[in-house]
Amino acid sequence: MNTRTISGRLRGAAALALLPLLTLTACGSGDTGGTAAVGAQASPVPTDDPVAAVRKVDSAAALLPADVREAGKLKVGSSIGFPPGAYYPNGTDKAPAGQDIDLADAVAKVLGVELERQDASFETILPALGSGKYDFGTGNFGVTAERLKTIDFVTYINDGQGFAVKQGNTELKGKVTDLTQLCGLTIGTGAGTTFEATLTAQKGVCAKAGKKPYDVKVYSENAATLTALQQGRIDVIMSTINGLRYQAAQPASQTAFLGEFHRLDVGFAFKKGSPLTKAFQAAVDELIKDGTYSRILKKWGTSASAIDASRINPPEHT
Question: Rounded to an integer, what distance in angstroms lies between the CA atom of residue 100 and that of residue 186?
Fold first, then answer.
């Protein structure tokens, strides 16, 4: 997207800070430490396991290159952020969970391969695809015209950009439909995301409207963004629709979701010209056809973002 695309390698406390349930310290590259709010327990991890019943589909697996079929493994760079996309519900020494994790695992089973998952910060994954460090990447990567110049995408959900404020905020009371509504405010967002790109590209809208410009603060870790909002160092967060909606549903986060701003297709990311895209597209379509896809989205509360069929490199939504 990330739509959401939300960035950041989350370690121990940082991972849990976005499920605000304890007094936690957010720290990371370029971030100053901060204490998150004390809150109630986080929502339990869904127990449904739609991936367990997924089986190899020979017609989809046959679309993989011969060397991949022989090796039986693919390397995936995963940005582990916060639910419902991907997060560490039980700490970084345990397996991650989330919509992106389930979908990648399900696709791998359809294709008859194992995944070698490597946790990576959001902003490092796309550049690393070209070098062959990863065969593909996950991280709620939104399909944009700029990214399509160097990256191939196989879509699996429709998410996008949205905004959230601290509960009780009186400066933004409704849906943000125009960035001039943010003039004079401080916006927090993730490094290397479509949100940062949008805010940077449109920074002149306030001057054109005769208003004070908005300020953008970029964070390398999601926990730091939420902490900044809770402590009043930023006025609003720009992030993924599904992530912000999920976060606002947790009472302890003390945030209010302001609705959708711009929809984006989200997909698995590959180096340009990758021979893997047709196989991944076929695998996603198999999951849609057999109902596994809808079960995964229902599990994570993202059914409203379902797609009817996977696409390779669709144009960016306008």
Answer: 30
* Helix count and strand count (H, E) for the chain: 11, 11
Tell me the residue type at 271.
K
Residues whose CB is less than 8 angstroms from the CB of residue 117 and which lie 6 or more positions away in sequence, other chains included = 76, 78, 96, 104
Across 110-183, the runs of DSSP E, i.e. the strands, are 114-119, 136-138, 151-166
SS3 161: strand
**How does DSSP classify residue 58?**
H
pTM of the model: 0.80
pLDDT in tens, 231-262: 999 999 999 999 999 999 988 889 999 989 99
d(CA 16, CA 7): 15
Taking Cα atoms as reference points, which of 201, 99, 190 lies closest to residue 145?
A: 201
Tokens of 56: 């190899």
